[in-house]
Amino acid sequence: MSTPDSFAAPNDGAAGPSTSGGPGRARSGAGLVAMAAAGVAVLLAVISMLLSWRAADRANEALDKLSAVVSPSGAGAAPSSPTTSDSPSADQTTDAPAPTESGAVPELNDRTRYEDKYTGETLRVPVGSNCSDTVYIDLDEPRVQTAAGVAELEFHRPCGSGSPYLNLTSGVHASEVSSTTVKPSECADQIRTSPIAGEEQPLRRGQVYCITTSYDDARSSANTWKMVVLSVTATPQDGSVTFTASAWNIPD
User: Fold this and answer.
1) Considering its fold, how many domains does the chain have in total?
2) From 7, 22, 157, 239, which residue has the greatest number of CB atoms within 10 Å?
3) What is the pTM of this model?
4) What does the DSSP assignment read for 204-239?
């Protein structure tokens, strides 16, 4: 009966290791779970960092686009300035006098060119049947007894003992000079500095006049503007008057 008791001890020894292995496995499983959770946490942190970096990058892109939109509008004002600078030139063109406007008479100076038109033409105003008649003289051709609308001079012979006289028509300017050898440029200076009155210039033999025709009339009639030297060569007792005229064209 002692033999069964000797076999009972090994069974007790084998039962000891089996009961002690359960807690070890639990601790090992818990460690794996903790490691997995830590890995997930790290992964989530990395993903969060990536998302934050991407959001920041998109925000920067948005700011850059906004700056790009704002900057051209400010810089766009600069290209618009040439358009603005063109406006004054258009206004200036509009406000400037047209070449055909009345009063836009070119200035005559030492650089003005004069071209011969005619030389030593004799103009004789005959004795009229009526002492109050007006004789019109055109210095463009020249011609005596022309139409009033094309004349530069009006010749008047007053009744009684008065001397005949000249009137200048509109736009005509003149000056009395001392010699028929005066040059056109000298005439221009005389007319500028010492013009005569436009009405009732008494005529005497030996008088010499520098005369410019009407600039406006010349342009409107497609004629040439002229400088004329007119001298009174004879004033006989019968009331007639003789002139000698030389003229130069004044090119535009």
Assistant:
1) 2
2) 157
3) 0.59
4) -TT-EEEEE--HHHHHHTT--EEEEEEEEEE--TTS
